[in-house]
Write a structure and sequence with these properties.
CATH superfamily of the largest domain: Periplasmic binding protein-like II
Structural class: alpha/beta
Number of strands: 12
Number of helices: 10
Order of helices and strands: HHHEEHEHEHEEEEHEHEHEEH
Oligomer: single chain
Strand order of the largest sheet: 4-3-5-12-6
């Protein structure tokens, strides 16, 4: 069976028009017609049937198309692997990530990956919030993203990458500033602000607030915006994950919470389960899955209660 004929078949199945498919393939229409007829003769069944000025797949043609596309993907992957082994690790990786891992965990991961595989692979970084990043991954804008887990995504694989703890923080003139630790019950009577409802981290914090019957202003998208408001208003007490963004404020006091697990907010490496991936992307996923951040790479209050 001619490999070129299979590629012609897939293109015609996509466009369902001989003239358009021939033009995209840079061949003549008679050559395309001959290739399809040769395939049908070899298989002994019709693959297309006429529909107006175009064609559409027969029932068998539709099933055959799915098999051929999977087969061509594997062939293309094998060819790319052979070239990469011959030329060394090259290519590019599109990585999307939430802000909170871009100042600590992710730089450590990329530095370690380059030390292991060299600098031949170009890593393109993109920043966003978890839900838009997941949407972009599904559209193939990214090869992998680092984001919070979202439900009802059976075609995506979520592998735990790193966790951030939930902390209280306030301006240094606040009555709770300087405490070595706090319980959530001790926040009653203070104006608490945190993430907006509707985001993955917002939903996680909401559950804690409801458990402790703790009212809060829930309107912030990220730690930097929240940190700026808290630093400028000594009446506020913020609840946020401890990230590089929060630790950049010198005018606030960060206090660990005794009754919240240290791994409160889990961040995942997310990628498509069955997508064709280059050797560069495969090597990155495998390396990242086993990566352990060095000491100090992930923010910590140092509290181990």
């Amino acid at each position: 069976m001619n490999l070129s004929h299979l590629r012609y078949f897939v293109k015609l199945a996509e466009l369902q028009h001989y003239a358009q498919a021939a033009r995209d393939l840079y061949i003549t229409q008679p050559s395309l017609t001959h290739a399809i007829k040769a395939l049908e003769a070899e298989l002994g069944v019709p693959l297309f049937q006429r529909q107006g000025r175009g064609v559409r797949l027969t029932r068998f043609g539709s099933e055959f198309n799915e098999c051929v596309m999977r087969g061509l993907q594997e062939i293309d992957r094998g060819v790319e692997l052979a070239r990469e082994y011959n030329d060394g690790m090259t290519g590019s990786i599109n990585v999307g990530a939430i802000y909170s891992v871009q100042g600590d965990f992710l730089p450590s991961l990329i530095k370690a990956y380059r030390a292991a595989f060299g600098a031949g692979v170009k890593i393109n970084m993109f920043q966003g919030f978890s839900l838009p990043l997941i949407d972009g991954l599904e559209r193939d804008d990214y090869d992998v993203v680092f984001a919070a887990k979202t439900p009802n995504k059976p075609d995506l694989c979520f592998e735990h990458a790193v966790s951030h703890e939930l902390v209280a923080f306030m301006a240094k003139g606040h009555p709770l500033a300087g405490r070595t630790s706090l319980s959530l019950d001790e926040l009653h009577g203070h104006i608490v602000c945190t993430y907006r409802t509707g985001t993955p981290i917002g939903e996680e914090v909401d559950a804690i607030l409801e458990e402790y019957d703790l009212p809060a202003v829930r309107e912030y998208e990220d730690e930097i915006t929240m940190g700026g408001m808290v630093a400028s208003d000594p009446s506020l007490c913020g609840l946020a994950t401890l990230s590089i963004g929060l630790k950049s404020f010198s005018g606030i006091s960060i206090v660990p919470l005794r009754d919240v697990p240290r791994d409160f907010h889990r961040i995942y490496m997310v990628y498509k389960r069955d997508k064709f991936r280059s050797r560069a992307v495969e090597s990155f996923l495998e390396f990242a899955a086993d990566f352990v951040p060095p000491p100090g790479a992930v923010p910590s209050t140092g509290f181990c209660g």
